Amino acid sequence: MNGARRRSKEWVITLPSLAWLGVFFVIPAALVVMTAFRPADLHGGVMSGWTWENIETLRDPAWLPIVWRTLWLSSVTTFACVVLALPMVFQMARSGPRMRQFLLLLVVIPFLSNFLIRIFAWKSLLHPEGMLTKLLVHLHLAPENALLLNNSGAVLLVMIYTQLPFAILPLYAASEKFDFQLLDAARDLGAGPWRSFTKVFAPGVRRGILSAVVMVFVCSLGQYVIPQFVGGASDEMLGNKIQQRVFADRNLPHASALAAVLMAVVLLPMLVVTAWQRFGRREDAA
Amino acid sequence: MKRSRFPALLTLGVVAFLFAPLIVLVVNSFNASRFGGEWDGFTWGWYEKLWEAEEVWESLAVTLKIALSASLASMLLGTLAAYALHCFRSWLQGLHSMLVTLPLVMPDILMGMSLLALFVITGVETGLLTIWIAHVTFCMSFVTMVVLGRLQDFDFTLLDAARDLGATRMQAVRKVMLPLLLPGVLAGGLLAFTLSVDDYVITFFVSGPGTTTLPLRVASMMRTSRSLPMINALSTILITATFLIATLSFRLQRRA
User: Fold this and answer.
1) What ipTM was predicted for this assembly?
2) Nearest CA to CA, how far is A203 from chain B (Å)?
3) Residue of B92, B114, B194 best to disrupt the A interface, most CBs of A under 10 A
4) Interval B50-97: pLDDT, tens
5) Cα–Cα dist B251/A260, whole Å
6) Around Cβ B58, how many Cβ atoms within 10 Å?
7) Contact B198 A114 (CB under 8 A)
8) Which of A143, A201, A234, B89 sits a CA distance of 20 to 30 A from B205?
């Protein structure tokens, strides 16, 4: 095939998905940033003209606790997910092929189960009349009128629960490429299990750790459904505010300003990672 | 060789943590007690109530309509995208690959919010069509990834062999390549289907009056305590369906 024909064939095959993503992914994201600088009308619409007003209101110090809460809930969730996922993936990779497939299926089923149903399951477990509360009270581990629901502990627990598969799956993919003979070598050289895990296995799957961290952190940043259903009034995250601005206040420009901030916070770690991976690849090649 | 038991024990713990809430849900769907704090005897009652709740089945119909059409469209777009990404190396594919990966890491709320902004500004009324567009957009990238994985295992010299044996280009593609790629495409389609059935956040942003999908219905049921035990029954049915689809998808991807 000559060059020109090959190029036109490439365009024909690429165009459908490229155009779809351009119209329904890139343009909408740009529109959000644009709308952040538009005045709102009282009927939930967007007016023409430009304004700094939406951005100005974000400088109110009342936003700081919400931004801070969003960041710390996401950070703790990310840390807990990676710490739980690493030894599990280590175990999966060392199991036989049938056991490995089975464990993978066990991770995928809760991952694919309806998100709301998983939240509902925890909501009914943590409910004052629910099983977990009754069990803890029965074992005298909690006071009679214990409230497990509507606090930041519940939000954190359910966030870790829903995000855990997002940490396990990329780590598992990375561990498939890891050479497990390195662990035998480490043991022969006198390293104990803990040392070979932290000094050989963890650095060996660092790309996987990186994608797990980004996946979980970024997904957590945009979370609002979990605080809405299992959190209290003081557990709201940035996402809750965006959702309220859109549906309760019907102020799309203000919601867009918040979404633009969130978008910037999300893109930042991804850019850092991309840069780091470029740099890392050069380092590997050297 | 002395191995630490810690990873195995932790794995057991994590699996228990992942499944305990789901198992409690399934057990409670047969529990006569309203809150499920204790066992009040076996009952089919919640399933009977669910059977009579017509609005739930209407939502299921809406959900299936969207999931089927969105997974078909994303299978088509995703397979083409994967083929382009696999066969060509150019600046265009660099851009293409970036655009395909970004939706995978974009938080749902931002995707919902930006599509809503698009529909509000262009004056498109939210409804079935807008939900379908949103679902195709986020499912497509997942299908692309699954098919791309499959293409990387595909031996392209088989096509040359078919041509040498006298097949036309179309015959080679239709009789050799498609059957070998089909399991990957189907697995991608199944993933898209489950993601579409599951989605709450994005759908919430782009849905309109009269287009209550199943997750939206579950969310509104969660707000009225009367219907809580019915959600247990509905969840049990959905978890069973997820289990069957996930197992099927695993079979498809393994049969190489």
Assistant:
1) 0.88
2) 17
3) B114
4) 898 888 999 999 999 999 999 999 999 999 999 999 988 888 998 999
5) 42
6) 14
7) yes
8) A234
Classified as helix, coil or strand, A46 is strand
Token pair 């089927």 is at which residue?
A: B68
Alpha-carbon dihedral angle through residues A172, A177, A183, A186, given to the nearest 10 degrees: -130
Task: Determine the Cα–Cα distance for residues A173 and A166; give it in Å rounded to an integer.
Answer: 12
From B19, B37, B83, residue closest to A130, measured CB to CB: B37
- What is the spatial distance between Cα B187 and Cα B237, in angstroms, rounded to a whole number? 22
B123 conformational bin, left if phi > 0, alpha if psi -120 to 50, beta if neither: left
Helices (H), chain A: 3-21, 27-35, 53-57, 64-94, 97-112, 115-126, 131-138, 152-176, 181-188, 193-196, 202-204, 206-221, 225-230, 238-247, 252-285
Report the alpha-carbon angle A184-A187-A188, nearest 5: 85
Structure tokens belonging to residue A276: 């780091």
Please name the residue that has the structure tokens 């102020």. A251
The count of other CB atoms within 10 Å of the CB of residue B161 is: 12
What SS3 class is residue B144?
A: helix
Is the torsion defined by CA of A55, A59, A62, A68 positive or negative?
positive
Q: Enumerate the residues of chain B whose CB falls inside 8 A of the CB of residue A32.
A: 110, 113-114, 117
In terms of Cα–Cα distance, which of B78, B228, B226 is closest to B139?
Answer: B78
DSSP code, position A42: T
- Give the C-alpha distances (Å, rounded to integers) separating A164 from A86, A206, B234: 11, 17, 24
pLDDT in tens, A102-118: 898 888 888 888 889 99
**pTM, two decimal places:** 0.88
* A136-B38-B33 Cα angle (round to 5): 140
Give Cβ neighbours of residue A236 (< 8 Å, ≥ 6 apart): A66, A69, A224, A227
Residue A116's identity, in one-letter code, is: L
Q: How far apart are the first and last CA of chain B?
A: 34
DSSP one-letter code for A235: G
Place of tokens 């790629």: B181
Beta bridge partners of B42: B31
Distance CA A226, CA A220 (A): 10
CB contact under 8 A, A14 and B88: yes
